[in-house]
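Bench notes, afternoon.
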Amino acid sequence: MLKNYWSRLYSTIVSRGDLEIDELTIDDRSTQRGSIKGLLRFSDHSQLIFSEAVRWQNQQPLKERYVYHYQNAQSELIFRYDNAPHHPMIATFPHHKHVGMKVEPASAPDLSEVLKEIELLIY
């Protein structure tokens, strides 16, 4: 059920003691579609700006659109996962990861995986 998915993401975010929630919006008015977007700030003043548009399909959430944009305190990109269809040469098209100026193959990560990746970079 999609409501459980939103609940899990919300719990994942608020359980972290090392970040501030500057923005967090969950649109869960429908049982079949919804979205989440947020801006999270970490102890080193880096930020994660993220959004997901999700629909419920085959008893699981399917991410139609997503972006997880992580930047340092100077607003310089550290990494960004997204599925914008602008890199057709990537093996995992449309899913990919920007690391600085490079574009790499990547699967759609879960928000908890992105937060763990950030923790590894910070700590």
